[in-house]
């Protein structure tokens, strides 16, 4: 389990950093994001949470996990909107990072350089098992990276792939269990081979 780093009180300047929570669909990324942000709220830190405005699967504004944990948030259209709305907060939470463009990388760097703790959750791979930008870039500049895993919907093993059940090919396709399954490497590859043969 991730524990917040201890800040050295001898350092006068305020230290910021970036944390990335990544994994496949249904792996608990948002649940872990909410857990960390709630701990910051308990510590009486000023927290601002953002999500892409296109994601309205569970709620128009709140960040909601698959197990129905919820936390208030501000939907934004563009990553740069986060800089405008973060204000004087101590902690910035960002859900569904894969739905932002690569400008999110610079936004997160600016936030952390300003002394903020930035906690990001997002898919590290798309439905074709390719890196889902900007999350891999964020992982490379983050101080802390946590990869969480789901359970394979086919065999019950540890899963780290998001298998799309439909044959649609666009990269961004919002959906839940009606459209995606978490799968282990073997079951994912078998599903892709079967699709090629159909």
Structural commentary:
The structure is a single chain. The chain has 198 residues and is α/β, with parallel strands linked by helices. The protein has a domain at 17-149: Rossmann fold. The protein is built from five helices and twelve strands. It is elongated.
Q: Briefly note the structural class of the backbone.
A: alpha/beta
Mean pLDDT: 89
Radius of gyration, taken over Cα atoms and rounded to an integer in Å? 17 Å
Low-confidence stretches: none
Task: State the shape.
Answer: elongated
CATH architectural arrangement of one domain: 3-Layer(aba) Sandwich
Q: Helical region count?
A: 5
CATH class label of one domain: Alpha Beta
Helix content estimate: 25-40%
Oligomer: single chain
What are its keywords?
single chain; 198 residues; alpha/beta; Rossmann fold; 6-stranded parallel β-sheet; two-stranded antiparallel sheet; 12 strands; 26% helix; 24% strand; elongated
Question: How is this structure best summarized?
Answer:
This protein is α/β, with parallel strands linked by helices and 198 residues long.
Q: How is this fold's topology laid out?
A:
Blueprint: E1 17-23, H1 29-42, E2 47-52, E3 63-64, E4 70-71, E5 74-76, H2 80-86, E6 91-94, H3 103-113, E7 117-123, H4 135-141, E8 144-148, E9 150-151, E10 158-159, E11 161-164, E12 180-183, H5 185-197
Parallel strand pairs: 1-7, 1-8, 2-5, 2-6, 6-7
Antiparallel strand pairs: 3-4, 9-10, 11-12
Helix pairs in contact: 2-3
